[in-house]
Amino acid sequence: MSNVIEAHDIRKNYQMGEVLVEALRGVSFTIKRGEIVAIMGPSGSGKSTLMNTLGCLDRPSSGEYILDGEPVASLNDDQLASIRNRKVGFVFQSFNLLSRQTAITNVELPLRYSGKPDGRRERAIEALQAVGLGDRMTHRPYELSGGQQQRVAIARALVNNPAIIMADEPTGNLDSKVGKEIMNLLLNLNRDSGTTLIIVTHDPTIAEQTQRVIRLRDGLLDGDS
Amino acid sequence: MTLLQAFIEALESLSGNKLRSGLTVLGIVIGVAAVIAMLAVGQGAQASITGSISGIGTNLLFVFRGDPGDNVRNPKPLTLGDADALRDQFTAPSIEAVAPALQGNGVVSFGGEQTSPQLFGVTPEYFQVRNLNLAEGEFITEEHMLGRASVVLIGSEVAEALFGHADGVTGETVRIEGQPFRVIGVLETKGGGAFGSEDNQVIVPFTTAQSRLIRRSTNDRVDIIFVQAVSGDVVTQASEEIATILRSRHRTPVGADDFTVFTQQDLLTTFQSITGILTIFLGGIAGISLLVGGIGIMNIMLVSVTERTREIGLRKALGARRRDILIQFLTESSLLSLIGGIIGIILGWLISFIVGQIAAANETAFTPIVGTDAILLATIFSAAVGLFFGIYPANRAASLEPVEALRYE
What we know:
In chain A, 34% of the residues lie in helices and 29% in strands. The longest helix of chain A has 18 residues, at 176-193. Chain A is of the alpha/beta class. Chain A has a 6-stranded mixed beta sheet, sandwiched between helices. Chain A has a 4-stranded antiparallel beta sheet with strand order 2-1-4-5, with helices on one face. Chain A has one domain (3-97, 162-224): Rossmann fold (3-Layer(aba) Sandwich), CATH 3.40.50. Chain A is globular and about 50 Å long. In chain A, helix 3 (103-112) packs across helix 4 (120-130), helix 3 (103-112) packs parallel to helix 5 (146-158) and helix 4 packs across helix 5. Chain B is of the alpha+beta class. Chain B is 56% helix and 18% strand. Chain B has 13 helices and 16 strands. Chain B has helices at 3-15, 18-55, 80-86, 125-129, 142-147, 156-163, 206-213, 235-250, 264-307, 309-317, 322-361, 372-398, 402-407, and strands spanning 60-65, 78-79, 95-105, 108-110, 113-115, 118-122, 134-137, 151-154, 173-176, 179-187, 192-193, 196-197, 201-205, 221-222, 224-229, 259-263. The A-B interface holds A 52, 55, 57-58, 77-78, 81-82, 84-86, 90, 92, 96, 98, 100-101, 109-110, 112-114, 117, 156, 160 and B 1-2, 5, 12-13, 16, 310-311, 314-324, 401-403, 406.
C-alpha cells in the first residue's frame, strides 16, 4: 500500500507575544492509504497543531510534508486551499454547518469551491445517502439532532472523494450512544470505500477502535502503535 | 464559484438579517434619493429660468443708465433722442427695433379692489420687441401715442386682482393713481419669470405715462431702452453699435461709459452659472448623505465579518480561496448599495414629481427634471460606494487565517 501521508521532521513555532512557542519539535511518520489512525496526547502536546498541518490549514515552519504525492510545505495560501478542497475532508467537534442553509447545500459547499459545475447536486445526494440522511436533505441544521448534524458534516467531508478525512474530536459534542453511531459510520465508510481516516481525540475508547495510535507529548512523537 | 452563485448566496445572507440589511439599505436610499431629487430641482430651476429669459423677447438687448461698476459719476440719463439715434439704419444696421420705456409703480383700482403692479409707459414697438401676446383686446397704437390716450393693457394677474377674472374685461375703466383709464386688452399669462411676475404689470402709452403718471426731471428722459437685434448672430454687433452711438452722443471718455448694454445672452449666462452653482451645491450636500450611507455599509460589513469569522474559517477549510471570500463579501456590499440605489432612484423621482406638483399647485412655472445623467450618476456612484466601502471589510475577511478563524468564538 502506498503512503498517503509522509511527514518528515515537521516543526512548528509560534510567536506568542515575547515568547517563542515550539508546538512541534520535529515529528516524522507516514500513514498508508486506507489506514485508520488516532492522534492522542494531552492538551498542549501539539496535536491540534499537527492536525492543522496535516489538514493543510497551516504550513510547518520547517520539515517536509507530502500529502497524496504532493509536497505541500511550501505552497501558497490559494494552492493550500485547492489541496484542502481536493484531498482533505474535515469533520469538526462542533459540526460547523452553515446554519441558514439546508443539509444538501451544506454538503455541496466544497463542490462550489472546486470549480467543477457539473453533477454537484447528484454527488451531494449520494453523500447524504451514504451517511443515512437521504430523507433529511432539505432540513436545516436547527431541525436536525446533533448526531444528524455530524452526519451532514461527514457527508460534506466525503463529497469531494478526499484522500484523507481529518476528524477533530468527532464525538466530543455528542452523547455516548450517538457518539458510538458516528464512530461506526466513520469506520464503515473506511471499510467500504477505503478512505484514510485520521481522528484527533482525547477519548481512549475511540482510540481503541483504530488500527494505530500516534501519541504526542511536548511537540514530539511519544509512541506509535 | 460563479458570480451567479455569489449573488444568490449574498441574497440569502442578506435576507437572513432583514432588519439590519434594511436599515443599511435605507442609508443608501436616502443618499441616492437626495442626489436625484436635488439634481432634478437644480436642473428644473435652470430650465425654468432659461425658459423665462427666452420668453422676455427675441434677440433682446437692454440699455440702462449708469455703468455696471458704478464708477462713473453723474451719468447722463437716456433720452428719446438716444432711442431715435439707435433707429438709424446706417449707423446701426444690426438693430431691428427700438423700444424706449418708462418704468414705475402705481396703484391701480377698480371698484373697491386695488393692486400695485409694475407700471410701464411704452411705444408700439414694445410688443414686438418683448414678444408679448394678448389674451384679448388690442395693442397700444400710434394714435394712442399721439392722443396721449387714457388706455391701458393689463396683465392677467392684475385682471384677476381687480375683476376676479381675466376674460371679458376689455372696455372696463380702471383708475391708475386716481385717473381713469380704459382697458383695451389683457396680456397673455406667462407665469412667474426671472424678474418678478410678468403678469403683474400694466402698460400705458409712453406719452401718457410721460405726461401724467411717471414724471421725470426732463421731458424726454427714458428709463430703459429695449433693443431687438436683426438676428441672433448679430447680437454682439448690435451691442457694439449701441455703445458706439451712445458714446458719441453722451461724449463719454474712453472706458467710462455712463450706460450699460446687457444682452439676453448675458442674462442667460449669468443665471445659468448661478443655477449651475446651486445644482452643484445641492448635489454636493446630497452626496454627503450618500457618503454617510456608504460608511453605514462599511460598518455593517465589518460587523458581519466579525460575526461570521467561524463561517469564513470553515469556508476556507473547505477550499475557498482568498478570492472566493473577497467576492462573497463584495457581492453582499454591492448588493446592499445596488438595492438602495434602485429604491433611491424611484424615491428621488417620486420626490421630484411631488415637488413639481407642489410648484404647479402654487402656479409656479417650475418642473424638476430627472435627467438620465442624474440617474446614471446616482447608479454608478452608489455601486462605487458599495464596492469602495466593501473592499476593506471583504479584504479583512479574505485575509483571515483559517486556523485562527475556526478557533474564533
